Amino acid sequence: MLTVGSLFSGAGLCDLGLAWAGFDHQWFCEIDPFCRAVLARHWPGTPIYNDVSGLKGAELPPVDVLCGGFPCQDVSSAGARAGIKQGTRSGLWYEYARLIGEIRPRYVIIENVRGLLSCGIEVVLQDLANIGYDAEWEVLPAAALGAPHHRERVFIVAYPHRGRADRGARLLHPLQRDLGDDHKPWQLLAWLGLRFDRVRKASALEAYNGPIVCRVDDGRAQRLDAATRPQSGQPHKIGRVDMATARSWVPRLKALGNAITPQQAYAIAVCILQAEGLPVPPMP
Q: Same domain for 43 and 147?
């Protein structure tokens, strides 16, 4: 069993995919209180740190795998494209790189938006090389694993230079085979490459009638759908849902928007397991 430490954990959707593959989490690091509550719910008793800049590799439980998606705001095509620089949110990559050098894991999984390829990947690869790690990467869309949206993400997998016994094949090479047509859910065949008529709301439902938004379980399901009594002086309504209920959705939607699908992380984990010659648990 491979042990894993998680940085920039969010609500743990990447970590859920790794857990499906049998990875054993030793600790998390996440600054958002709501997301920490989600992690505590699903990984009870596992240490959760809240400040990546305060972590020291020598003080953390040793792990085989270090994973995390550092902030994307400064490399995303939707942002200002400031790049990976000290003082920016995406500049937290330097803390990630520091911890890789201090922990020296057997594998590193780095996730970010596709915009990283044109704004910052050279910084990541150079830093990894300076630490003594080789790296390879792929763009893996959620749609390739059956999700009703593209959500393309860059996955970089790094390992110590000359640290792999089989250096003839790329570690991520199995992705192409594992995502072949024989393994794709039926929804994907009608989804990939599809372009919606955005003028008509019904066009998405006509193309895909499955669930599109899933919930983040923070253990408070009783307050998810039921109308919450507004506080005194706040009787405003939004349709049939009061303001307090609407506000309760904000952290959930933010956590989902910042996350990947667990299936993407599971696919990357499978490549690592196969490289290690370890059995691959079936995805739930």
A: yes
What is the set of active-site residues?
72
CATH number at residue 95: 3.40.50.150
**Do 165 and 243 share a structural domain?**
no
| Tens place of pLDDT per residue across the chain (284 aa) | 999 999 999 999 999 999 999 999 999 999 999 999 999 999 999 999 999 999 999 999 999 999 999 888 767 776 677 788 888 888 889 999 999 999 999 999 999 888 888 888 899 999 999 999 999 999 888 877 777 677 888 999 999 987 666 666 789 988 877 665 434 444 444 444 444 455 665 655 565 555 444 334 444 444 433 333 434 444 444 444 455 555 667 888 888 888 889 999 999 999 999 999 999 999 88
Query: Pick from 282, 280, 268: which is nearest to 65 by CA?
Result: 268
Domain count, the chain: 2
